[in-house]
Each structure stands twice: as C-alpha cells, then as structure tokens.
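Hi there,

I know you've been waiting on this one. I reran it after we fixed the sequence typo, so this is the corrected version. Both the input and the resulting structure follow.
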Amino acid sequence: MRKNKSVFVNKLVFSYSIVIIVMVCIFFISFCYYIYQTSQEISYLNNQELADKTMKQVESFLDDMDYVAYLVMTNSTLLNTYSQLQQNKDYENYFDKDIVLNIDVGSILTSINGHKNSIWRISVYNQYGDFISSGALPDKNKVKDILRNSNVSYDMIELMNSTDKYIVLPPQADKWSNMYSSQYITIKCPLMNIYSEEVYGIVEVQEDIKKLIEKIEFSDIQKINLEITDQNGNQVFNNIIDNMSRKEMNSVTKESAKYGWSVTLFQKRTDIISLYKNLIVMIFLGCVCFTLLAIRVVFIIARKLSKPLITLKDTVSRINIQNIYPTDTPHYNIDEVKELNIAFSAMLNRLVESIALEKKANLMALQSQMNPHFLYNTLAVISAVGSEAGNDKVVKLCDSLTSILRYTSYYEETSVTLRKEIENAVCYLDLMKGRYESNLTYYIEADENVMDIKVPKLIVQPLVENCFKHGFANIEPPYIIKISAGIEDEKWYIKIADNGSGFTSADKEKVDKKINEYWDKINKNMLDLETEGIGLISTIIRLKLNTGKDIDYSIENNIPTGSIITIRGKLYD
C-alpha cells in the first residue's frame, strides 16, 4: 500500500513539476531575451551619444587646423610677398636667396602658429618653387625635388575651384622630409586675393595623427572599436584589433556635415550582454531556488490532497459482500473530496438497498415456490377424470391453467414476444370464460407486424385481470373485453378495453401519482410495494425499467361505459 501511495504522489508531483519547470524556463528565456533587447537598445543610444561626442572632438581638431590655414591665407604680408614672387619665374626658392624676407615671413608664420607650435607644420609654396614653413623642419632638397616635379599650378586651380576652398587629406607620411615616421593629416587651401580671386600659392597645414588620437577620450569608450574615415572613405584611424566580422558587432556612424568625415563605433554583442552577466546569473539562481521551493510545496500539497483519496481507496478495498457498509472517513475541508465521500456513501446505501431488495425478492420467490411437477401432475389427474366423465370443459380449463403456470414459472425468460403475451392472456380469458360462460365475451385484434416485438413478461395478463378485479366488480354482466395491438404514429401499442365501471378523474390522478412516486424512488418503493393493486402500476414501472423514457401510457373512458388502457413504445424497442 505504501508503494501505491508513493507512486500516486510521485506522479502528481512529477506532472506539476514539469509544468513549473516549463513555466520557469519560459520566464527565464523571456527575461534573457528582454535583457538582450534592452541592452542592445541602451548600447545603441549610448554609442550614438558617444559617436556625437567623438565627432565633435574630430571636428574641433580639424577646426583648429582650418583656423590656422585661414589666418595664413588671409595674411596681407604673405599675399603681397607671394604676389610679387609671381614675377620671379626662375624656379629657385627665393627665400633661400633673401634671408631677410625669409626671417620676416617665417616670423609671421611662427606668430600665427604660436610660440608653442600648436600646429606641427605650416607650409606656403607656389608653382615656381618658392617655399617657406614654420614648425617641423623640412628637407630642402626633397622640397626642391617635389616642387620641381609636381604640378603645383594644377593644385592651385583645383583649390580655387573647390566649393569650400580647402582640401583635407587623410594621414600620410611627411612628403617634405624623411626624418619623421608618424602619419600626418593635411589641410590645403589656396593663398589668394578674395577680391580678385587671384591665387598666388598654396597654404598647407599639417598635424600629427597622434594629436588627434590623444584628443579623443578613449577612457569613455573602453571595449568599443573606433574607426574614422575621410570624405572619400579612406581610413584615417581605427583601433579594431578583433578579428570578428563586423556583422557580429553593433555599429553606430556619425558623419560631419562640414568635412565629410565619418566616425563609426563598433561594439561586440557579447561585450554588451556581458555587462548584465551578474544580473542574469542572479536571476538564474533565483529561478533554480524558486523551482526547488515550488516542487517542495507541490509535494506537500500533493501529499495533503492525495491523503483523503488514498483513505477512500483503502476504504473501498476493505469493502466486500460480507462487509458492505461504509466505514467512517475523516472530514476534510476540500469540497470536492467531501462531495466524493458523500457520493460514495450514497452509492453504498443504494447498493445496500438493492441487495436488500434482491434478498426480499428471493425470499418471496422461495416462499411462493411450489413444485411445478406436483401441480402439473395434479392438473393432469383432474383433466383425466374430466375426460373419463366426458366433461370437456374441465379438460379445457386444466389445459389453460397448465399453460399459464408453465408460462409464469419459467424464470429464465424475462423478455418475450408480444405474441406469447397475448397467447398467455387468452389462456387466462379462457379460464374466466369457463367461470362466466356466456356472460363474458372477448376479442383479439393484433397486427402481425407487431407480434414479434420484445416486451417484459406479464404486461398484458395483469391488465386483463384488472378488468375483472376492478372494472366488473360492481356491475352486472354481460362483460366484454377487447385486446388490440398495432402500429400508430411510428409507435407500437397495446390496448385493453372493457365495458366496466371505468376510471374517474380522481382514480386517474391517483394512478399517475403512484407511478411517479414509485419511479422517483424506485429502490425504496419496490421494497415497500404491496402486491395488492399492483397490476397496472407494476406493468408501467417494469416497462419503464425496460425501456426508460421511451414508453408512455394513457387511461381513457370507453364509450358508453368502461375504460381503455393504452401502452405505447418506440418501434426499435
């Protein structure tokens, strides 16, 4: 028994545990998905803000270079000097010849650049090789070769025709010297008279890329990869050291409206979600603890819920035919279990009543039993005596009574055809004919289509007997009985009509009331049912038991006197 109990509880706990685990898994997966989506959105917003900030730093860096270039290109001394140098077309650097002019112009560039040389180098040159600079020293020989072999005039025209009047070049090695190993960003603009739009030379401002890197606050963008590209898509800077595909990273791009440069921030998705690693671990541990606690609670509840059911099962297993009475079971607060106990007790009570009814019926059958052979032998003797005396009436009566006794004493057959019922009723009427002789007349009208319909045994003869017991009790003969059977409105019917005293309205109501009372509480009323007056009521009750609700009856007055009792049933019955 202990094993059965544990199996029941274990199955109950296992089923609910599966449900709890599935629900917790769905919650945890949903939570992780929510954290992932939220982290991606937050990361995108943060990186967008950081990209704006980084772009402002880049633009500030380029603005400083552009401002210095603007000061140089608008300096009147430089304009006048290079305007006059347009007349010197010997392709030699005039500043190497005129030391005083070299010092004066160099001082102007130095003053524009500042005493701390905030700009790495400022250079001014024209198409005739006149070159001067401030800041990092150039290689004169290399300068001379570059200016002699390059098309400076074309660059001057291109700068003059450009919309912004300047060109920003991506980081590249210093073209004026081989002494420096870094990369330098360059802004080139024309040295021109803004009124006459005459171009006298080119102003070139160079700045070390390291200064731009220092300017960007990398402390704010840890674990974020930065890429800077110019207006032509050329790479200016990047610190992407991871070999992951860019498709596996989240990216945010900010473009400068003024310079056309772009700043793109890349961040690995795993780095984004790792920020929430501790939170996810805590939620996971919380889900595990909740699941274990919930399973423990389910086990306790399952054991509590199953206890009354197991107790009820033990009670059922102890009940047998010798001990069928219900034992006392504990009262529980669970309504369903309480109702189950009540229903089980009611079922046992009905079973007790049914057994008592069966016992009573058996006792009544034993008490009323007679030896059929003794009766048959006695009737055979009487029939033989009547035959020897030449009294055929006695012989016929004995034969009819013998048929009735054989029909009623054969207990193995409970359902018979309507043909046999009518034949048994005819035997009874023959007996009554022997008594009343010419004062009794009976008629049989039966449709052959209904003669093989199965009906409970002894439903016609009791109704015929009622005619003599009640219908003809207080009237004088002649007596007339008519039995008819047939099909009407897709139902079979049996009618027993007589010319007796009939039924009053009160009698009909009494019969209907008794039938309803017996049917509502069939077990109890069958125990209390008396044999007196049982004919009509017993017949209707047995028909209802046999066919359920598919049977109906009616009691009508016959014209001019008497009654008609009709029983109807569905054809498939």
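Quick highlight: Residues 366-370, 529-533 have pLDDT under 50 and may be disordered.

Best,
R. S.
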